[in-house]
């Protein structure tokens, strides 16, 4: 899963402990879940969040519960995502939007749903969710960055498909091309996207087989453009 997030801003918005504080039903389970999440015990965290959700949904009174329910659903989604259960996580994030009472909560839920869609290689769906996040909270810088990046990737993928239909596929990558990509990946890990992109572009002029990594080149090129 980590490799899927090598380019988009890798921030998952978790509802803070202070949001699910106090003596409200479900709050105790929420705090326990947050503690487990911080310890990396994601399965136990999801179980705790689920217990809190059940307590809220089984109440017979009309006490307001939207903010807490939205937070519990969001955090359960985050725990599921950390277990690489993308589809289940996304269901929880969308449910958190439906339970939310503020633009900020809705922006958070849509953003996280976009994050999981990207991890599942559903880029168009990911872009749609990031856009919805921005509509709820136009100043959400992470959502803006990721929306622009995914849209660039979709545009370049469509262009590559058109180019591919008009010519033969590139040759398999040579040893030089593989070594070049390894060097570029190290630069990416250091967030030196422009240098990594330039390295690959220069390699194309030396060895045509570097084109086998065109998708990688396009991705880091998109990030370099946004970071300018």
Question: Can you give a write-up of this model?
Answer:
The protein is an all-alpha fold. The protein has helices at 27-38, 42-57, 66-82, 86-99, 103-119, 123-136, 141-164, 175-189, 193-206, 214-227. The protein folds into 2 domains: 2-157, Serine Threonine Protein Phosphatase 5, Tetratricopeptide repeat (Alpha Horseshoe), CATH 1.25.40; 170-227, no CATH class. Helix 3 (66-82) packs antiparallel against helix 4. Mean pLDDT is 83; it is low at 1-8 and 15-22.
Characteristic key phrases:
elongated; single chain; mainly alpha; Serine Threonine Protein Phosphatase 5, Tetratricopeptide repeat; 10 helices; disordered N terminus; 228 residues; 2 domains
* Mean pLDDT reading: 83
The CATH class of the largest domain is: Mainly Alpha
> What gross morphology would you assign?
elongated
Count of individual domains: 2
Distance between the termini: 27 Å
Query: What is Rg?
Result: 21 Å
| Count of helical regions | 10
Binned strand content: under 5%
Structural class, please?
mainly alpha
Question: Which stretches of 5+ consecutive residues score pLDDT under 50?
Answer: 1-8, 15-22
Q: Helical percent range? A: 55-70%
Q: What CATH architecture of the largest domain do you see?
A: Alpha Horseshoe
What is the CATH topology classification name of the largest domain? Answer: Serine Threonine Protein Phosphatase 5, Tetratricopeptide repeat
């Amino acid at each position: 899963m980590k490799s899927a997030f090598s380019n988009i801003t890798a921030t998952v918005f978790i509802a803070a402990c202070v949001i699910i504080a106090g003596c409200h039903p479900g709050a105790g389970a929420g705090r326990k879940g947050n503690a487990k999440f911080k310890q990396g015990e994601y399965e136990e965290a999801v179980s705790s969040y689920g217990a809190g959700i059940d307590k809220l949904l089984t109440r017979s009174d009309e006490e307001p519960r939207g903010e807490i329910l939205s937070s519990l659903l969001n955090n359960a989604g985050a725990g599921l995502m950390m277990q690489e259960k993308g589809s289940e996580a996304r269901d929880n994030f969308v449910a958190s939007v439906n339970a939310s009472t503020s633009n900020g909560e809705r922006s958070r839920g849509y953003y996280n749903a976009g994050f999981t869609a990207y991890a599942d290689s559903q880029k168009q769906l990911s872009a749609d969710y990031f856009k919805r996040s921005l509509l709820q909270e136009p100043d959400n810088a992470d959502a803006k960055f990721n929306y622009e990046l995914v849209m660039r990737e979709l545009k370049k993928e469509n262009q590559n498909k058109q180019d591919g239909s008009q010519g033969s596929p590139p040759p398999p990558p040579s040893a030089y091309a593989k070594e070049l990509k390894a060097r570029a990946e190290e630069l990416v890990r250091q967030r030196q996207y422009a240098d990594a992109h330039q390295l690959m572009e220069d390699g194309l002029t030396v060895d045509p087989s570097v084109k086998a990594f065109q998708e990688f080149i396009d991705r880091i090129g998109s990030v370099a453009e946004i970071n300018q």
